[in-house]
Automatic annotation (TrEMBL):
Keywords: Aminotransferase, Pyridoxal phosphate, Transferase
Provenance organism: Cristinia sonorae
Protein's name according to its UniProt entry: Pyridoxal phosphate-dependent transferase
Keyword Transferase attributed: yes
GO molecular function: identical protein binding; pyridoxal phosphate binding; transaminase activity
Protein family according to the UniProt entry: Belongs to the class-III pyridoxal-phosphate-dependent aminotransferase family.
């Protein structure tokens, strides 16, 4: 019914336009309209629903699997075709406590019956304030004491840019090569991991400059390059950028991920982060630390920036904050947020009460269920399973922190014929082929970056057995694909 009604509405609207641009046409469903109108989605076959989705969901979204995700429980997803998949993606580092954590889901359900929408420009609501109480002791620096919750990571980035520009009175933002900060226009302008995100969408927000991130690839150096060398190369390039392209007096902020996510799962060396802090302090530039993917215990600390002891001026969070409920945060010190005019921040759904209640339960579970201990124990095991692969010439690097871990493969083509790290003997497209083979063997694993990289981000409470199972699948898949050549 729904499908037919919407289609005929579209057709009649098209008719009103005179039919020249959108001529009235009979909807072309491969399923009969009768099937769709008389059966609930649940009674339709899995294949027919997938086909329906392929036809009507925008082509702008890429998918790993042409299937319907029916159920999530802990580290597993059940698909509509009956497959039960080990999920080492966590919905891109979101369901850190596993799918449908009972306490998080229960807290959300309870909040649903009390208050769903407590609009932030009308008044406070309880879960919003409770969440701040839970987060304050988790902050990487006690100065971070002013919170604003939004829905997505991209929105948090937009808010952070606005805050930095307005408070500093400067316009330019320096981002880093390989960064991913989102797909909305401001966030997209700061995203430098792959051109696919911006191709065809220019012009983006102006006033953005790019400095290199300390990833050996960016300098065509080998993976064994010492962090100290990468640090001095990158800090020197940044100093040059401030002299040649964006004067400090025009530069509002430098934004970075302490572990670049979509750029290859590369942790920034602590000495580099300290160098950034020094430059920011010297020049009055704000340091925005994007912990959207690396935050909330993912790297073995509450926040990845803690490895360096560096103080962020503004920190953005999302993903693991509410274990799957849409919620993000922009956190700063009151001295900065006190400069904002009331009304300059806000959003209809910002800091939704159900999402905040879920986030409170998530923060409680982090503490009560010894999640940090599990991350660090499982991380050691994960590196233990992967380390023997280093002797395989198809493997270029194994790196990461906590349960944010990557394996980089050799490549015959990347990044270009000029790349000295190109290995003409390596099989092509190893990352995506291995990820696909893992999928065939019952595990979701994601690739990342412009390079041949797969990333491991299992649930932070993944069991010893499931971690081993996932690693066994991966090692087997690598072995098969490399042998196939
Ligand atoms: C570091 C980082 N920042 C920002 C974002 C954007 O978040 P969202 O997809 O919720 O808009 C992402 C998403 O992957 C991210 O990894």
């Amino acid at each position: 019914m729904f499908v037919r009604a919407r289609s005929s509405a579209l057709v009649s609207r098209a008719g009103l336009k005179g039919g020249s641009v959108f001529p009235p046409r009979t909807p072309r469903f491969s399923l009969s309209a009768r099937t769709l109108s008389t059966t609930s989605p649940r009674s339709q076959t899995h294949a027919s629903l997938v086909e329906f989705g392929q036809r009507h969901v925008t082509k702008g979204i890429g998918r790993q699997v042409e299937a319907i995700i029916e159920k999530g429980e802990g580290s597993y997803l059940t698909l509509g075709d009956g497959r039960k998949m080990l999920d080492f993606t966590c919905g891109i580092a979101v369901t850190n406590l596993g799918h449908c954590h009972p306490k998080v889901s229960a807290a959300a359900a309870e909040q649903c019956m009390k208050l769903v929408h407590g609009q932030c420009s009308i008044g406070f609501h309880g879960p919003y304030l409770e969440l701040i109480q839970r987060l304050l002791p988790m902050m990487p620096h006690p100065s971070l004491d002013s919170f604003y919750f939004w829905n997505s990571g991209s929105e948090a980035i937009e808010g952070a840019i606005k805050m930095a520009r307005s408070v500093s009175g400067r316009q330019n933002i320096i981002t880093l090569q390989g960064a991913y900060h989102g797909r909305t226009y401001g966030a997209l302008a700061l995203t430098k991991s792959k051109t696919v995100y911006a191709e065809g969408f220019h012009p983006l927000m102006p006033g953005v400059f790019t400095a290199p991130f300390p990833y050996w690839h960016h300098f065509s150096l080998p993976p064994t390059t010492p962090a100290s060398e990468l640090t001095s190369l990158c800090l020197n390039q940044l100093e040059l950028l401030l002299q040649q392209q964006s004067a400090p007096k025009d530069t509002a902020a430098i934004i970075l991920e302490p572990v670049i996510g979509e750029g290859g799962y590369v942790p920034a060396p602590p000495e580099y982060l300290k160098g950034l802090r020094e430059i920011c302090d010297r020049e009055g530039i704000l340091l925005i630390v994007d912990e959207v993917q690396s935050g909330f215990l993912r790297t073995g600390k509450n926040f990845a920036i803690e490895y360096s002891g560096v103080r962020p001026d503004i920190m953005t969070v999302a993903k693991g904050l509410a274990n799957g409920f849409p919620l993000s945060g922009i956190i700063t010190r009151r001295e900065i947020s006190d400069g904002l005019r009331p009304g300059s921040m806000g959003g209809t759904y910002a800091g939704n009460a159900v999402a905040c209640a879920a986030a409170v339960a998530t923060a409680d579970a982090f503490k009560n269920e010894n999640i940090l201990e599990n991350v660090n124990a499982r991380s050691k095991e994960l590196f233990g399973y992967l380390e023997p692969l280093r002797s395989n010439p198809a493997i270029l690097d194994i790196r990461g922190l906590g349960l944010m871990v990557a394996v980089e493969f050799a490549s015959p083509t990347r990044t270009s014929v000029h790349d000295p790290l190109r290995n003409p003997h390596a099989p092509a497209k190893l990352a995506s082929r291995v990820a696909k083979r893992c999928q065939e063997k019952g595990m979701f694993l994601l690739t990342t970056s412009a390079y041949e990289v797969v990333r491991f981000m299992p649930a932070l409470n993944v069991s010893k057995e499931d971690l081993k199972k996932g690693c066994d699948i991966f090692v087997e898949a690598v072995d098969e694909i490399v042998r196939e050549g």
